[in-house]
C-alpha cells in the first residue's frame, strides 16, 4: 500500500482468529535506519569515438542509469563491458544494451538509458563499467565502481533458489577442449561442437542467427533420415527480456505448435523437466554461441532419448523464429534453415572436425554500395590525421580488412591510395597523437611492407618478416620506437555515424568536424626519401595498432607527372581507371599494336 521501511516499526507473524490474538514472532525496525539507496558515479572517461555522458547512477545491484549518453557508433564490435582489475581489459563480460540486445552498440545522441547486468552478476562483483571494442581489445571510456556501495537489491534478487527454481550463470568460454569435434549442420549458418565428459554430453551450437531467432539441434525421430516427429532436441537462443542465454529441452510429438500437450513442446510444458544445463553464451558479429550439457541418459524415457557412444546416430538441426512466448515457431523448409539430408554423428569420436565455414570471421555481403577509393598524385607534402572508417561504405569494403572504428585521413581523405616516385622525398605532417598513456589517441605513422601494420605489437620473429621504410628507429638496445607521433587531430562525427545513408564520401565528410586536442600542440614530420630498391607496393600504417592505413604505389621517376600532367588526376579517381591510365602512359605504343576494328562495326 505504498509503505516504506521507514514508515513501519515492526514486522510480525500474527494470528487474528484467537480472542486475545497471538503474536508468533516479530522483528523491530530501528529508528533512523540507513536503508540502501542509489549511488551517483562520475561520467564516462572520454577516450575514443566521442563517448561521453553525464554522471552515471547505480540504481540497484544490477541496474545502471546512464544519462546524456553520446557515442558515434563507429566502433565495429563495441559493447557495454564490465569486469575486474585496475582498468578495462579483455577478461570482461558483455552487458546487454537498453533493449536487452547483445548486438554491437549503435550511436547515441544524448539519450538517457538504463542497462542491467546479465545473469547473477551484480555491481558488487565488478570494478568498472566500460564501452569496449571486443575485436580490437580497445577501451573507448569507462567509469570505476566504488567498493563501499550500499545500493538496493535488484528486483527478484532476494528470491531463494530451491530445487524447482534454478538459475543460470552466464560466463564467457576461456578455453577449448583438447579434442575438438565440429560438424557443419547448415552451410554458412550453423555448426555443432561436442565432447563427452563423464556422464554428460557437452554441446556448443555456433549459429549465424538474429536475436529473434533460435537454433535447434538434437537426435532425429528416425535413424537414417531427418525426422521431426519423435525427435529430442534442444532449442537455444538469447532471451532479450530476461537478458540471458537459454537452452531448453524439447520433444516433438507432432509438427503442430505446442498446445500444452502435443506438438513442438518444451519438456516442461508437457509434464517433463528441462534436463539441459547452460554453460556459457556469447554473441558477436551476428554469431551466437551457446554451450550446454545434459546427461547421456536421463530419467525421462518418453521425452528424452539417450546419446549412444557405440555407434553413429542421425541428428537434425534448424534455425527459426521465436514466438511471443519465446518458444520455437515453425521454420522454413527451403533447406537453408533445416537439415534435409541424413546427418550422422558418432558422439564418442575425437577430433572429428569437418567444419569448413568459420562463422566468426564471416561478414555480411549485402549492404550499401562502398565509396570508391581516392587517390593522391603528385603531392610532396601530405597531412596524416585520424578519422572514422565510414562503416560499411568505407575502410572494410575498400580494403577487405576489418577495422576498429578509426583510420588514417591523408590530406583529409579516407585511406586514399598514394603514388610516389623513386628518388623523390616526401613529407608527412603527422597529427595522430603523441600521448603514450592514451592508446586510443596514440597513432605514430610509419611506412611498411605490411598491409596490417602495428609493428609495435609484433614479436621479434614477426618483426623480422616485415620491412620498415620510414618512421621507425632503434635505441641502443635494439628496440624499435616510432619517430612520427605529433599532436592528436581527429575528424569526428558531429552527431552519429551516418555513413550507411550517405552515398558519397564528400557528403559524408560534411557530417564530420576536425578537432585537435591541443591547439598549441605541434605535429610530427616524417621525411621519406624513396630509394630505388623500394618495391612497387608499400603501406602507410599505425605503429601501435593494426588496420588503419592503406596503399602507397611506388613508380619510377617522371611517371607520376606524366599521368597527372596529361590527365589532371588529383584527389579522387578509381583505382581501375588509374591503373589503365598509368599503363597507357608507360606504354605509349600500345595503340599501335592493336588492330583497327572492321568498318561498320
Automatic annotation (TrEMBL):
Alphabetized PANTHER family for the sequence: SKELETOR-RELATED, THROMBOMODULIN
Protein name listed in UniProt: DOMON domain-containing protein
Domain of life assignment: Eukaryota
Keyword entries, A-Z: Repeat
Record flagged with keyword Transferase: no
Xref: CDD domains: DOMON_DOH
